[in-house]
Records
---
Amino acid sequence: MTTKLETLASAVQDALGDKIKNLSSELGEVTVVLGAADYPSAMQVLRDHPSTRFEQMIDLCGVDYQSYGDGRWEGARFGVVVHLMSITHNWRLRVRTFAPDDDMPLVASLIPVWPAANWYEREAFDLFGILFEGHDDLRRILTDYGFIGHPFRKDFPVSGYVEMRYDPEQKRVIYQPVTIEPRENVPRIIREENYGVR
């Protein structure tokens, strides 16, 4: 007797065939890795194929794999992870794809397949700098329009590049270089001699 995850993995394998780079089933979820070139067409198949019927895109997010696995990661730096749901078959699927160029991460937009991808892709662009080809309104959504950089990248400084404050003389918010001095905090542990002993 096959489990629901095995049935899902088989249906995805039948629908996508050789477009799948990797298919795994771990922790109660099936994950499919697609190449960037096959990504938009494979997602259309996952939505329309009768054995998969993923009508709903639940989530799309960017990922920076720069120091993933304590630096043992050897693949592309930027990835896009999409979570899909099939109401017809009552199952979920995770799909990953990677931008081939680390300097200019670019993957196809999913707006033609699922219009709900619009704001998710804008968020991935704003926070990670991942560009979505075919997105007609790719602009910042969470950070300020004058913000420099992409704050969820692993190489973005924790303190940022600029800080903003209200200037009472100019009666407006102004931006200036960060004035925080970087420091390293070393925790001190102080214990009493009989701490925790009754």
---
Amino acid sequence: MLITIIGRGHGGTRAMSHTLSASGVFMGEPLNESGDLLPPEPMYEACRVFAKYVTYRGGLVWDFSRALDGPIDPAFTRLVEQFLTTVLRSDAANRGWKLPETTLVLPWIVRMFPDARYIYWSRDPRDSILGAHLTDDLGDFGIAYDRTDDVRLRRAISWRYQWEIMRATPSPEHRRDVRFEDFVLHQEPTLQRIEEFLGIPLARIPVRAESVGRWRADTGQHDFGFFPPEALYG
């Protein structure tokens, strides 16, 4: 079984990666402290290849139709397979990977690995944009947008782009949506749902309730009108 975690950086995806590793799932090697598969550079370059097939319409509108309907660029396939070398060569019964930048190329990942188990991970964007992440500037991955020097706004736009690409991608056959907040505040029932989805027992890792709702104590701008209400937690 192949498993991947889809979600923006600073979305709490490391909690799921650590859970899978603690449960005997081979998540590739080496890993960093966030549970990301290293080295990430081939996937970063794959993101730039994919970005050439996304048309920017202005504002917060990106057209993914070329990526959804056209062939996958062979360079992309080569780079992803290079990134996943240790995972794809492993003979482990259960294997997978986590790297937030995977979300930037989700349409082609789903087409490359249609039988994989996809965990779609989300977190209240007001918390997600509080910390810096490599994907904050979409331009670093070749994605066009109206760049701004406002750091929080830049992070919020990046969050919106990733929300849009997850919505635009046809849902894989094996998909389970999980909220970080539910994983933290209601860990047992949430893990039971994931266990049913994966068909394997999962370890319980320590979680901290104070990681939910950090935006409430934040003094900077953390709320933007283009955050959809259904993405907010409480």
---
Amino acid sequence: MNYNGPKILRVIFFAIPFFCFLVNLYSQEVDITSALKNLEVGKIDAAQTELQKLKEDNSSDPSVIFLDAVLTRNAEESIKKYSTVFEKYPKSKYADVSLYRVFSYYYSLGYYKKAESYYKRLKIDYPASPYIAAADRKIPDKEEIITPSAIVTNVADTTKNNSTLQPQKEKAKFTIQAGAFLSVDNANRLKELLSKDGFPSEIINKVVGGSLLKVVTTGQFISEAEAKSSLSQIEAKYNLKGRVIPLPAKP
């Protein structure tokens, strides 16, 4: 019997670094936080410029594809890009929110059976996703088909409320207070952490006992029960203690 031990060892020796390279390649995604922040404050042109730069060298990166989907005004084209994220890159940090947005699209069009299939997939593939609570709603028995042209995507608004294409039949009444700080830096750190993970957040001022606090809030919810469901998942994910509060009245 011919023994090729040294040759096999050489193959393993060279294969290990290559395997490690592949692991790193697929575990790291491009940071799109800066572009998402620009969208939060309505700087769409700046986000578009950043997207074009990212696409030059990272067009197949799932985070870049997600950002491209967010900035795509045509709803049907946007949905194709969201689908690419969770179909081709199921472990991407934006896979669950992409799946949620596809669910919202079909729900808003009245394709309730198809929407329900995506909702079930969200629960099975991403059981810890906070978007499960956002998608949890009664699915009508009768479909009410709406033409896609009736769906208008406003990039700035959809990025801010984290519910692209979700029908706004009722006005949101609650939000989650993720933290309250005397320090602006601490508040900004939590806000950036939440935003980076796809949870649109903002900082509001609140006077308590004569002290001005920086309150970090995230999410907008129609019902208190919906907000509490998301709160429990956010608390577990970030090891923090938050609470559901009414949305501040708009001036």
---
Amino acid sequence: MDRVGVLIGVKGSVKKTIEEKTNTKITISDGDVTIDGDPLGILKARDVVIAIARGFNPEIAFKLFDDDNVLDIINLREITSSEREMIRKKGRVIGKNGRTREFIENMTNTYISVYGKTIAIIGSYEGVEIARNAIMKLIDGMSHSSVYRFIEKEVAELKSNFF
């Protein structure tokens, strides 16, 4: 509910952009979002709507209009046993002054949103996969320095496969 205003945008601009880019019609009623249109457009619009609901600003969520980008969501409720544990694990992913999240984003060319009970990632399939694995290692308690080395190794390997 607290993200409905962001989804609509100033004078309906965000909603209108999503509808135009995906050839869909979005209806918002009491916080429920309904998307009508062709199946491919619905799926793309749904991903953008979910990304906005998961804390991304619309400009980043709009990157999902590009077929090369994907959205992945880690549901912390499924892997934590208490609210306190969830807060601690989110803190490990964010890092001091947001540095861990920023490092992962910069190295994997992704965007990460830690919002509510989820961690969402937007980027290329390969980048999202590396970021997700790194985040899961942090959640599982691996040291930050080990996770940084893991990311550096994976990114270097990915680059060597392309060149």
